[in-house]
Automatic annotation (TrEMBL):
<feature type="binding site">
    <location>
        <position position="123"/>
    </location>
    <ligand>
        <name>S-adenosyl-L-methionine</name>
    </ligand>
</feature>
<protein>
    <recommendedName>
        <fullName>Ubiquinone biosynthesis O-methyltransferase</fullName>
        <ecNumber>2.1.1.222</ecNumber>
        <ecNumber>2.1.1.64</ecNumber>
    </recommendedName>
</protein>
<dbReference type="GO" id="GO:0010420">
    <property type="term" value="F:polyprenyldihydroxybenzoate methyltransferase activity"/>
</dbReference>
<feature type="binding site">
    <location>
        <position position="38"/>
    </location>
    <ligand>
        <name>S-adenosyl-L-methionine</name>
    </ligand>
</feature>
<dbReference type="InterPro" id="IPR010233">
    <property type="entry name" value="UbiG_MeTrfase"/>
</dbReference>
<dbReference type="Pfam" id="PF13489">
    <property type="entry name" value="Methyltransf_23"/>
</dbReference>
<dbReference type="InterPro" id="IPR029063">
    <property type="entry name" value="SAM-dependent_MTases_sf"/>
</dbReference>
<keyword id="KW-0808">Transferase</keyword>
<comment type="similarity">
    <text>Belongs to the methyltransferase superfamily. UbiG/COQ3 family.</text>
</comment>
<comment type="pathway">
    <text>Cofactor biosynthesis; ubiquinone biosynthesis.</text>
</comment>
<keyword id="KW-0831">Ubiquinone biosynthesis</keyword>
<feature type="binding site">
    <location>
        <position position="79"/>
    </location>
    <ligand>
        <name>S-adenosyl-L-methionine</name>
    </ligand>
</feature>
<comment type="function">
    <text>O-methyltransferase that catalyzes the 2 O-methylation steps in the ubiquinone biosynthetic pathway.</text>
</comment>
<keyword id="KW-0949">S-adenosyl-L-methionine</keyword>
<dbReference type="GO" id="GO:0102208">
    <property type="term" value="F:2-polyprenyl-6-hydroxyphenol methylase activity"/>
</dbReference>
<keyword id="KW-0489">Methyltransferase</keyword>
<dbReference type="GO" id="GO:0032259">
    <property type="term" value="P:methylation"/>
</dbReference>
Length: 236
């Protein structure tokens, strides 16, 4: 199994969270709150997920993977955390959903799944790997011509640092301290350039803002904290 693009420290962070992954009031609460927005974003820009082969890279405990499966997608999830993958498999079984979860990197999976998926997602994962460009390249290889790639991560700005590290980890403590590393945050221009270098065409780039009063996320033109990118693989 190819594992050069894996940081054991980062994997370990999420191994510790595995037991509470599906607790909507636990440490994964922000992901539970974000999930409806990102799933609807993916479904809207991919013209529906029903019947489509979909790959969720860095699936963790399977929140987004399950949501896409419930939309009718033929869903598969990849992650390098053994505990999160086991949690994902168990929850899918309890939910009576047919989802294929694999302990595997995007690069290794891409070696025998070229042009295979209608939709590939990689959400809240790129800031946790040593070489995010390598992941994007692998995702681009796995998307069919005419297919879609969806990415999301955290912008490298002072406001993002204050919000995600100082606010979420140190003050409110909704996330464990050390979950994020500011040096690994990524600017939208970086992701867009890497997508283009991988032969993709970026269609949308949208900011994601959190309302603490309603505990909900919404799309925004502001991309200085969280953001999502939608790219297409040309047919030509």
């Amino acid at each position: 199994m190819q594992s050069h693009n894996v940081d054991p420290v980062e994997v370990g962070k999420f191994e510790k969270l595995a037991s509470t992954w599906w607790d909507p009031e636990g440490h994964s609460k922000p992901l539970h709150q974000l999930n409806p927005l990102r799933c609807s974003y993916i479904e809207r820009h991919s013209d529906g997920l029903f019947g489509k082969p979909v790959l969720d890279v860095g699936c963790g405990g399977g929140l987004l993977t399950e949501a896409m499966a419930r939309c009718g997608a033929k869903a598969r999830g990849l992650d390098m955390g053994e505990e999160p993958v086991e949690v994902a498999r168990l929850h899918a079984l309890e939910s009576q959903l047919d989802i294929d979860y694999q302990l595997c990197t995007a690069e290794a999976h891409a070696s025998n799944h070229q042009n295979h998926y209608d939709v590939v997602t990689c959400m809240e994962m790129l800031e946790h790997v040593p070489d995010p460009q390598s992941v994007i390249n692998a995702c681009a290889q796995m998307v069919k011509p005419g297919g879609q790639l969806f990415l999301s991560t955290i912008n490298k700005t002072p406001l993002a640092y204050l919000t995600t590290i100082v606010g979420a980890e140190q003050i409110v403590k909704v996330l464990p301290k050390g979950t994020h590393d500011y040096d690994k945050f990524l600017r939208p221009s970086q992701l867009i350039r890497w997508c283009e270098q991988a032969g993709l065409r970026v269609q949308h780039a949208d900011g994601v803002l959190y309302n603490p009063l309603t505990e909900t996320f919404r799309l925004s033109k502001r991309m200085d904290i969280n953001y999502m990118i939608h790219a297409v693989k040309p047919n030509d």
